[in-house]
Design a protein that fits this description.
Three copies of one chain form a homotrimer. The two termini of chain A are 16 Å apart. Chain A has eleven helices and eleven strands. Chain A has one domain: 3-Layer(aba) Sandwich (UDP-N-acetylmuramoyl-L-alanine:D-glutamate ligase). In chain A, the strands form two sheets. A nine-stranded mixed β-sheet of chain A has the order 2-1-3-4-5-8-9-10-11, with helices on both faces. The first copy, chain A, has a two-stranded antiparallel ribbon with strand order 6-7. Chain A is an alpha/beta fold. Chains A and B meet through helix 5 and helix 10 of A and helix 2, strand 2, helix 3 and helix 10 of B. Chains A, B, C: Its EC number is 2.7.1.50. Chains A, B, C: Its cofactor is Mg(2+). Chains A, B, C: Belongs to the Thz kinase family.
Chain lengths: 264, 264, 264
């Protein structure tokens, strides 16, 4: 698991600038966790601003949690700059499957941009895979079929890495399929842990020699930090500051020693 | 007080989806408290998205804390779907009385939509009641006249439940008037406790057999959680995580045992 | 240092209403710190609302952290009302120097409005001063030349107070130059401490007999609160609630006793 520890070290050393066009619900948490993991966050959505901001960024994170037409315009403009510069684009298709607008927007972003990583819950990933899946608001209502097959086939079809979060996070680049079993249930009781994972995935994808390894390292790192935070938290409220503290204090040694990764 | 405890149990069992069109200042707190009380939050404001989101929601919360024309458009569209589906609509008229734009928007929402519950501070409710009232920014500057009469008359005139928050929260459906004396002063020193109360009122109104009882149960539940949180908080900053923890840990037994409700 | 302690007392006594048009990343922190220092925050950006809101405010804070064309329109409208009413206007030029849109917008606000205080990091202030400076996202990448000269010359040229934040905060009104050495490194590891400082500067500028003294008092107060919070925080996550607690608990005696101000 030294491989994943090294990617965390690279994040800390390079401190990549992560440009995030994201929702207004969890944006503060995304900024703070980006700082805590060792990267540098910048949020900007105006079409007039995103071209120049993406030009100096090392990864672009697109999160459709509270989308509207102006924001989508900003995402497409920023995404085309990211594509030209060949920096990773992370898509978090929040609520895809819950409403047609979200599903269509996620699909549009996938069609028009060379997305590098798609990270969502089972319902969102299942929706994009065309499987029977349900999403209730922004929560997964489940997915039909074998999850490993779904992520691998979607990744192969789109030529990107797919992360399906859950009790076991599943990650695939279309050939490899890996599972990550780090993390605690408290992470599901706090708003924004999914969004935070996408932000951190951006930081890891920005520096990782292999994108799939970077995604695994991101999920492992947050899961281990969550495990540490759960030991000091009294509930979902105190879990948030404890989680940010644990992410900031996370060492490569912890990652190497506690990673629970299975290659299938 | 078993009646109120049972409504909390119903929230936990049903986990209703609460669609919130709200301000960007306290939206994260609203999402987290909705989760902590046992319901499921979703935030969405784009007119293209809100129709489908409201179709799967169990209550709609409209909060005008940082309103603009696009958001009002989304509120009216979502509200008409909520009306068709007969799900509760909660209005938090943040800052009504402080500026004409806020007062007029609150009045427009009340005229065009079958609002189920209006929850505001004394100045906001007084403004909507047409009494002499002052609002300074988003803080109540007080109201002239008997508060119980104001809430009862406004509720009777509009055919809805009115909650006037304060040291004693007053709740009326036009015939009954009840007072809730749970809560602590620290709740007034944190931004967003009023908005959080509206979010939680949405969750309780979604499942309560009687809306007024649901509103009382919501105010009692948050007040008791606030009392518990104040015991471990060192100030307004640490009160927030402690409050969320206390809401998540709140039991029906606590509600039944500590509710301070007076029917007038 | 009694002078600075007295300004804190005035904030607590007057509880000025601080109208903030700011970014959606740190807006909740800005609202809470405004409350904790003893003032009253209100956030509003719609051109339809800001005229009336600025009419009842005691200071206006403009923060371009997540700007767009609609928000700039609101800033200009609010700023012209603030100018007519002669209340302080604080500008936080977040990211000026990182993108042309941010630099141009900051310059436009400075040209069209009688800005009272500009508060930014070294890169942002250097950019506005026309010095060689770099900004990476929203983080300072440094500035060439003598910092004291840069802040004094910019303040003299624009006829306002300039605050350049850093390990030593430098403050000038064009003739006096002062340095504040309060604060801790943890403040730089949390998103939003800069924005919070601008909000609090608005509160102090609203009541201070002399604007430069008000700015010094604001930086001293937050620095001392940060020092206190660092003693109980386990990392950047727990630092935030501890910082808000410390700001709320801050006494004039602490300010008088711990201020580290140098007049150059």
């Amino acid at each position: 698991m030294q491989k994943y520890a090294k990617i965390l070290e690279s994040v800390r050393t390079a401190s990549p600038l992560i440009h995030q066009i994201t929702n207004y619900v969890t944006v503060n948490d995304c900024a703070n966790i980006t700082l805590c993991i060792g990267a540098s966050p910048v949020m900007s959505h105006a079409p007039e601003d995103v071209i120049d901001m993406t030009k100096i960024a090392s990864a672009l994170v697109l999160n459709i949690g509270t989308l509207d037409s102006k924001q989508i315009e900003g995402m497409l403009v920023a995404g085309s700059v990211a594509a030209d510069r060949n920096i990773p684009i992370i898509l978090d298709p929040v609520g895809a499957g819950a409403t047609p607008y979200r599903t269509k927007t996620a699909q549009q972003l996938i069609e028009e941009l060379p997305i590098t990583v798609i990270k969502g819950n089972a319902g969102e990933i299942g929706t994009l895979a065309g499987t029977t899946a349900t999403v209730r608001g922004v929560d997964s209502g489940g997915v039909a079929g074998d999850r490993k097959t779904i992520v691998r086939d979607l990744a192969a079809r789109l030529g990107c890495v797919v992360i399906m979060s859950g009790e076991e996070d599943l990650i695939s680049n279309g050939s490899r399929v890996a599972g990550v079993r780090n993390g605690v249930p408290l992470m599901g009781r706090l708003s924004g842990t999914g969004c935070m994972a996408s932000a951190v995935t951006g930081a890891f994808a920005a520096v990782a020699p292999d994108t799939m390894d970077g995604c695994i390292a991101a999920m492992v790192s947050l899961g281990i930090a969550g495990e540490a935070a759960a030991k000091v938290a009294a509930g979902p409220g105190s879990f948030k500051p404890a989680f940010l503290d644990a992410v900031a204090a996370l060492t490569p040694e912890q990652v190497a020693g506690h990673a629970k990764v299975t290659e299938y």
